[in-house]
Amino acid sequence: MVLWTKKYIQIVAILAAVILVVAAVNYRITTHIVEKTIASQQEDLAVKTADTVEIWLNQQMKILTAAADSIVLSEIGNNDQTMKPLKMAMKAGHFTDVYIGRIDGVLIDGADWVPPSDYDPRLRPWFHRAVEIGAISFTTPYIDLVTNKLVIALVKPLELDAQLVGVMGADTVLDTLVKNVVNLRVGDSGYAFIVEKSGTIIVHPNQDYVMKTRLQDIETNLSEGLKSFMTADIGTMTYFDQAQREHVLSFSKIENSDWFLCVTAPRDEAYSRVRQTTMIFATEIALKVLGILALGVLVVAGISGVAVFFYSRRYTDVVQQHQQEITGINKDLEWNITRRKEVETYYQTLFNVANDAILISKGPVFSECNQRAAEVFGTSREALIGKGFLDLSPAYQPDGGLSEKKLEEIIRAAHEGDQQAFRWSFVRSDGMEFPASVSLKIFRLDDEELTLSSIRDISKRVDAEGQLMQAQKLAAAGEMLGVIAHQWRQPLNTLSTYISSLQAAQINNMLTKSFIEKLVTGASGQIHFMSKTIDDFRNFFKPSKAKGPVDVLKVIINAVKLMEAQMKHADISLTVKNASGESALIVYGYEGEFIHVLVNILANAKDAIVERLEGDTGNAPVLKKIDIVVNADDDDVRMEIRDSGCGIPEHLLPRIFNPYYTTKSASSGTGMGLYMSKMIVEKEMNGELLAENTDSGAKFTIKLKRMNIERDG
């Protein structure tokens, strides 16, 4: 029995040792795979970003080449045959200038710049560059002293019958390139940049480095690593920064240049990304656990071997338990490896999905979209491709405008070169409409016009804004109910007096027809006043259904009526001055919400006056007044609400329109009134709401676009 137990322990020890070795080897292999995965991911990102830069440069070069090909080289001069292609190239390529330096020293400039009399283009670096290369190329970037922007010159030699007749050049600002590179983020603190082969920094998130500093001067540990630029177009290296934090840097050469697109990130962040996107980390942990367990088995086996002569029977169950654990670990390891392969295959089929729906169209129909687009519209990618913008839109937008007409205006503006950002209503596959924020850009790729649309579903935000707006109205309900009670007190007293007078009239035999008619007329007037108060209160809390024409003067009168009782109670003078002299001033928006804005500002003005009175310890009387002044011109309506209150502390002025920010106590202010007012005026009515202090208090200014009924109706 003891002999069998010894052999059994030996077998277990050998098996544990083998597992430990296998685990160590696999752990090393897994670590190597992690390193390769990190390098592969960053290199792939560097290559894709470099491809984007190459596409942009090639597009600019194609425009310059096309312009050069359209010029009659035998007639180069300040004439239409030369100037027209130069100006067309400036517009097509967004160049700041396109020009030709002739071999005889004459400069023809597409931007109509007149050079000094001693200016000779043949002595300029761009002329030398074109002659030296003998083909289309570009100069070393430089910082423009006027615009402080990064600029390069694309140059092309012009030859007629194999003889150089001049050099054509085009200056282009690298804003697009810089933006695409600088905005690229890798993890939490990684970033991208462009350097020349020599190490000179061309594009970098830190503008102080651009064209002024070499990479090896910033990161001294990269001096040897930069030699890779001389021998390889794509690669990855590691280095330690000044804080001794290890980084991973991947690079890709930009075609037809000495530039390298680099992507760098701290190694721990890169390792974290790999752990999140692959099962390698799980395998690594499993191997660590397996190694520890195997080592534990060896220790236990060793101890058991020493004690087997004394406790062989006692430790038989322990050895069997260890065998079962090893068997379970092997099965878990096999499952983890299989699962890792499945997950890696799965992740390789996914692309970098954006948070927004992205659709690309050729002409009026979509030719490509991401998976997010299918989710937003509740259909498949195949169903979206082949449809158009209007196929996914209702006939009319929420503002009553025809979708087709509004889209034509947006496309027309986009063709002028500006990116269009707007709110749009779409229809899902189930027929449900939803609001979205859209960014639309038209661009050309390989002589083909494409439209890129980025769509974000803002249904929840719009619903939340509507609920928040109504909640703010409800938050004012308590105070407004107090207003109604105060406004009803006098009519109720009057009605009580009328009723009491009936009994006195009867006793004194004064119940004549004229007396009763007078009494009924007076009572009806009081009841009508009370009914009107209820109607005003109900209209104030009823949300507006849709946008439409709004009479500013009518809204002001309604708001003043709602606040009239509060102002009288506080003994505050409230005046309205129509400085425009017109009987109606029409804007476009939501009438109910706009009344809410004015009521909110008037309530704040009243509170400010009361606060000033409570805090004033002097004997001088405080003027209690609020003035509303309305001005207008052909384009805008301007309202100024001035009060004689305590004003707004200067350090709080930038924050008063922030949500949940209030200078009042928690019991008297929610911090949402001015935020909602600004949102209504600026987002819903395309206006502007400003606040400032005056010598006597505070002033709020509302500026809205005036609506011409005949023109805009």
Automatic annotation (TrEMBL):
The chain crosses the membrane at residues 285-311. Keywords: ATP-binding, Cell membrane, Kinase, Membrane, Nucleotide-binding, Phosphoprotein, Transferase, Transmembrane, Transmembrane helix, Two-component regulatory system. Residues 483-708 form the Histidine kinase domain. One of its GO terms (cellular component) is plasma membrane. It comes from the Bacteria. It is a multi-pass membrane protein. GO terms for molecular function: ATP binding; phosphorelay sensor kinase activity. Its EC number is 2.7.13.3. It catalyses: ATP + protein L-histidine = ADP + protein N-phospho-L-histidine. Coiled coil: none annotated. The keyword Cell membrane applies. It is found in: Cell membrane. This is histidine kinase.
